[in-house]
Inverse folding.
């Protein structure tokens, strides 16, 4: 009886790629596993989420059954290692899935993106074994939704200017202050919160905490009315003598600012991948509309001005794709990606905004109408230049890295 | 309970299908699990979860059929078997498939075999019943409900919009109709786990079969796409003239009167 193993087949497949050119110098293909995962996510998004995107938009609410099915799919477990019930995917795999999730309503994408990104990564990267055991399995199933609470009225891009305080009292910390614009605040159960433990030390006096919404003194404020990302809810948080057990300090005391930057840096490739997916969806819409829409007796797809817009969209998309997956790959090789990840976040948001603008232009009047999805992408694109580090902050990071590299070279 | 699912890889009829040289072009076609077989996989998993046992998914195909088997494993099946005929068989029909399956099941002790009602490509619906005949076990087609209690099975069968209730016993072969269940999506953790599940690959000589044993009994003369739907014709003018024109068109052009 002949029993062949998967492995054999994979080797055969790789040989095909070689085609007698010796060693593979560069390989831009995804592994079979990643292709398989993403094709299933693509089908799920296409069949279950996309047909209800208009419903999400109109009701400013993601239907519970979609959230439930997404949890069953395992989409909430993307960032969590296998030993805690997650998928244990590397960055390339995560990005491939984010790209698929970007192809539908961005409010839905944001619920999952914020949870699997800034909402869980802190505990995965910095948590103690006890913290991981306690939080990650329930976050992997989506029973507990994660959120990240850094921003305050006085601390946006200047993240070190926090006013929320944490004072140690016995085996507890007492937190006072407020946060705003906190994605997933309404559905969130577990928050990574940054607060000042020593105001004399500036950025070095900030500590991160794992906060549960049931902690005494945790108050959910009003839900913010946004330009887009409907269905994803951001809100204010108030901490009124909120008691946080000392074992819920995340990472070391005084390292909260560095932790926050690390968590944000980790999510940048993923954001680029989501923007890539949304841009691809806009190209798909634009192509099919241009083929159908007739003016002056012909489909506008035959008009050179329209063709050039489509070509520009395609150029942006392919450039973003190459950049995104290279950063993800570098990150999986444990290479330093501070500069490249900032470039991907910045460029990804710019591409998405440019593509959304061109897509509205190709669609003309209907692109501006609420009964067609294009204007929704146009509004949703705008926040990507602001959240998780504005474009200006990304430029600061990029320039900072350039200067660092220069100094290193000059000694 | 030993549960088996007969699964077929088909092209996705939601995608564009091109025919050339009397064959459907493989290039560019998307392949999926035959949707009726998805009901069979789902039902098999549910029956296993209710009664214990093991689900084995069996397909006859080529190297690429592994993808559909992995999908079934990711949904929750325990084992998969690929009977790879790529190198051995030029052609095949329902007889070929049923003969190969008969040989495969010869030394198996199957309690329940599930198949799709039909495959959406050729829609013959023959393989299940033929196999049951060869194996000498009862079969029920187009089922929409299956309750198993010990050795007994109570089945609801779709009979052109009506329901027939059938009582029978295991071992049994059923073919699954839309409405039986709602097939699950393979979850991402399920996909990762599926990699570690056994996938056995056999060729027909492993089943002690020769090419002549399974030579098809039918011959496909031609394959063509249905004619493209033309736009309807709108008649205009006085109603009495329209009626006359309609009658004339039905008589002379469409020749239905």
């Amino acid at each position: 009886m002949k029993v062949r193993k998967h492995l054999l087949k994979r080797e055969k497949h790789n040989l095909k790629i070689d085609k007698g050119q010796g060693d593979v110098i560069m390989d831009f293909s995804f592994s079979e596993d990643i292709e398989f995962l993403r094709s299933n996510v693509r089908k799920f998004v296409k069949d279950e989420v996309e047909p209800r995107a208009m419903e999400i938009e109109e009701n400013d609410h993601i239907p519970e059954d979609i959230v439930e099915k997404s949890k069953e799919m395992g989409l909430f477990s993307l960032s969590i290692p296998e030993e805690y019930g997650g998928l244990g995917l590397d960055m390339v795999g995560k990005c491939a899935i984010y790209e698929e999730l970007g192809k539908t309503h961005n409010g839905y994408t944001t619920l999952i993106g914020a949870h699997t990104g800034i909402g869980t990564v802190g505990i995965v990267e910095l948590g103690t074994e006890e913290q991981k055991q306690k939080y990650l399995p329930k976050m992997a199933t989506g029973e507990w939704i994660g959120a990240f609470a850094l921003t305050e009225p006085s601390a946006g891009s200047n993240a070190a200017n926090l006013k929320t305080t944490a004072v140690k009292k016995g085996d507890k910390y007492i937190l006072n202050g407020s946060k705003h614009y906190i994605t997933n605040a309404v559905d969130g159960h577990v928050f990574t919160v940054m607060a000042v433990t020593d105001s004399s030390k500036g950025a070095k006096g900030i500590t991160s905490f794992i906060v549960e919404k049931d902690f005494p003194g945790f108050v959910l404020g009003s839900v913010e009315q946004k330009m887009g990302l409907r269905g994803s809810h951001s809100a204010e948080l108030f901490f009124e003598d909120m008691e946080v057990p000392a074992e819920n300090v995340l990472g070391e005391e005084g390292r909260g600012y560095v932790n926050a930057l690390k968590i944000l840096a980790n999510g940048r490739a993923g954001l680029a991948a989501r923007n890539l997916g949304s841009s691809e969806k806009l190209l798909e819409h634009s192509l099919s509309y241009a083929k159908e829409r007739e003016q002056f007796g012909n489909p506008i797809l035959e008009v050179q001005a329209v063709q050039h817009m489509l070509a520009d969209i395609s150029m942006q998309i392919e450039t973003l794709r190459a950049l995104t997956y290279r950063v993800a790959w570098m990150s999986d090789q444990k290479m330093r990606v501070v500069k490249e990840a900032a470039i991907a976040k910045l460029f990804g948001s710019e591409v998405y905004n440019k593509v959304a603008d061109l897509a509205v232009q190709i669609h003309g009047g209907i692109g501006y109408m609420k009964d067609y999805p294009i204007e929704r992408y146009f509004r949703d694109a705008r926040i990507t230049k602001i959240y998780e580090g504005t474009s200006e902050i990304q430029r600061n990071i990029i320039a900072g890295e350039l200067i660092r590299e220069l100094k290193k070279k000059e000694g | 309970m030993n549960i088996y699912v007969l699964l077929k890889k088909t092209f996705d009829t939601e995608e564009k299908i091109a025919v050339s040289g009397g064959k459907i072009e493989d290039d560019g076609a998307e392949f999926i699990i035959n949707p009726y077989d998805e009901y069979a996989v789902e039902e098999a998993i549910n029956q296993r979860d209710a009664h214990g046992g093991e689900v084995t998914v069996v397909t006859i195909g080529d190297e690429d059929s592994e993808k559909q088997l992995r999908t079934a494993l990711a949904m929750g099946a325990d084992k998969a078997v690929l009977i790879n005929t790529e190198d051995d068989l030029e052609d095949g029909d329902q007889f070929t498939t049923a003969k190969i399956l008969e040989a495969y099941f010869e030394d198996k002790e199957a309690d329940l075999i599930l198949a799709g009602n039909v495959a959406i490509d050729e829609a013959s619906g023959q393989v299940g019943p033929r196999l049951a005949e060869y194996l000498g076990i009862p079969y029920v087609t187009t089922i929409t409900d299956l309750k198993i209690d010990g050795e007994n099975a109570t089945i609801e069968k779709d009979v052109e919009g009506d329901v027939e209730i059938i009582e029978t016993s295991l071992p049994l072969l059923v073919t699954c109709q839309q409405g039986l269940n709602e097939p699950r999506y393979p979850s991402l953790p399920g996909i990762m786990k599926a990699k570690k599940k056994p996938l056995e690959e056999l060729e027909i000589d492993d089943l002690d079969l020769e090419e002549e044993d399974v030579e098809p009994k039918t011959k496909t003369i031609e394959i063509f796409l249905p004619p493209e739907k033309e736009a309807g014709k709108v008649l205009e003018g006085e109603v009495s003239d329209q009626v006359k024109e309609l009658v004339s068109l039905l008589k002379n052009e469409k020749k239905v009167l």
About this structure: The interface with chain B takes residues 1-4, 6, 9, 33, 36-37, 40-41, 43-44, 48, 69, 72-75, 77-78, 82, 85, 87-88, 97 of chain A (CB under 8 Å). The domain at 145-254 of chain A is CATH 2.40.110.10 (Butyryl-CoA Dehydrogenase, subunit A; domain 2).
